[in-house]
Each structure stands twice: as C-alpha cells, then as structure tokens.
Amino acid sequence: MKLALYLPTFRNHVTVQELADLTDLAEELDFDSVWTLDRIIVPEASDRAEMKYPFGMMEQFPLQMPVMSKGKWFQGWPILPWLAARTEKVRIGMSITDTPYRAPAVFAAECATIDHLSNGRLNVGVGAGWMPEEFDAASATHLFPRRHAHVRETIEICQGIWSNEIFEYHGEFADFGPSGFGHQPVQKPGPPIWFSGLKDPKRSANRVAKYGLKGWIGIQDTPRELTEWRNAIAEELDKLDKSIDDLEMSSMIWFTITDEPTDQTDNRKVSNILVGTADQITEMLIRYKEAGLTMPLLWPPFADVPVSKTLEDLRQLHEEIMPKVHAA
Questions:
Q1: pLDDT tens column, 204-256
Q2: What is the domain range of residue 144?
Q3: At what angle are helices 16-28 and 79-86 packed, to 10 degrees?
Q4: Is the dihedral of CA 21, 23, 24, 26 positive or negative?
C-alpha cells in the first residue's frame, strides 16, 4: 500500500506556507504522490444550504459545501507547476480535474508542459464535475448534460496530442485540423490517467480497457464499499480479458489521529473511516489493504484541525502505523 497526500487547497483558510510544509513532509516521508483539489467556486447559496445538489452529489451530505463562499482557498491547477518545482521525488496531480471547465487540447498541452517541469512525475486525474453552479462560473453551463461525454473526448485528445507530433480531432466538443502542440510529455506514451466517479462497473471497465487507464479514485469509500465496487468492476474487466490487478484503486479519505476512540460504524460517506486512534487507523488500513485499496489519498479535514496537527499525524502514520500495516 502506497500513501498519497491530498493537499488541503480547499478549506476556509489556507496559506502557501502551510501547503509548502505539508508538501515538504510528504517528500521527506517518501509518499507516492501529492494531489490538489479542483474547486473553482463556492456559491453563496451554499452558505444557506440551498445548492442544487449535495456535495459531490452524495445523498448523505447537505445542500452545502464544507467551505464558506468567502473562504480563502486556492485553485488547484496552478499549484501543480509550483509542486513540480518544489519537489524531486513525489508524483503530482489534481484529483480530480473537471474536464468540462477546460478546452481539451489546451489541457493536453498544459499537461505535457507540467510533465516536463516535474521531469515525468505528473498524474492526470479526470472527471465530469457535479455542481451546476460551478459549470455556470466556468462558462460551461451547456456542457453539464453532456459532461461524461466531454471526459471521453478529453481523454482521446490528450492521448492523441501526447503521442503524435501533429494531431487533429473532429468531435462534439473539439474540432481542429492538423496541429502541433509543442513538447510531448516526458512519460511515454503519456502521463498515467486516473478517473473518478462513474460508479457503473460496465462503463468503467470499458473505459479502462479502451484507454488503458491507470487508476480509479473514489471518495470516502468504506472497506465494504470498496470491496463491492472492486469486485463489480473486476467481473466486467474479466469479460474484456483485463485484470483488476492492473488498475490502481484509490479513495480520498479524511484523516486525523485522535486521542480517544471514535465511532467507526460503517455509515457510508459520513463514516469516521480514517479518523480515530492510531490503533483504529492501523486496523482500518489493514482492512483496506485486504479490500484491494492500493493508495489512500489522505485528506486533512476542511476545518477544526490545524495543519500543525496534520503534520504530526503524518509523521506518526509513517513511523508507527504503516510498518504494522505492511507487516500484516
């Protein structure tokens, strides 16, 4: 099991120095990767719990974001070049890039540049987005009903630009003649692509098989949910002569080590999965390992836990907990 850090770029107040301290520690502790979050806006309606959909379209959450509309957070995409320059070992990525907010060809070319800045350490995470209000702010209102198709075209355009000096594409969302886009990525045939959402095992398996996707990223998946999902997609992949063992399984999970035990009852997305004592987290990570989770994205809470506490927790995880997990 590898470890990844989900930088708290999206919270009520975060500073560049806090992000730097967390990134430096992830590098020091030999984490696999560091990821940012794609969040463009928080609608003012969220403060009144009047959004069109709950957070992440997850029914257990309110019609409200965990961050206030006047919060001081950072956009995730511009942080990637900064991460490339600041680090030397960890891989970097954004979980998840909502493709409808970006022109596919421009996105592909920018990924290639960032792959050079990081000397071949970029992961590309893609998803469809879920918040109509954010589509409005990104001037992409018309794409909301067709957002999943936009992801597919973005993947095709990325792989085409990354693998060809001259490339053309004629589709629903992009239509351009033979063109060059500058440097191709360091990684060949291109940066690994991770996808999120799309909790339809057949469609997911088809996408993995067709495009050679590297991994899947969920959010707050309990060991039970992960096992059910992994088994379902494994069955579909098997029909396509593909193995689930070739697909990385990850999930963005809120992480805090507590002094007192927490209630870790499986309550789906609102469970205290990796919030608990060191012993509870050790046991949970072992369960995840058995369920097939290859890389938890450790997500500092949106509020109430200072970065200084997260830094302590990450060290304790590395020094005390993970040796027991690896030995299990």
A1: 999 999 999 999 999 999 999 999 999 999 999 999 999 999 999 999 999 99
A2: 4-327
A3: 40
A4: positive
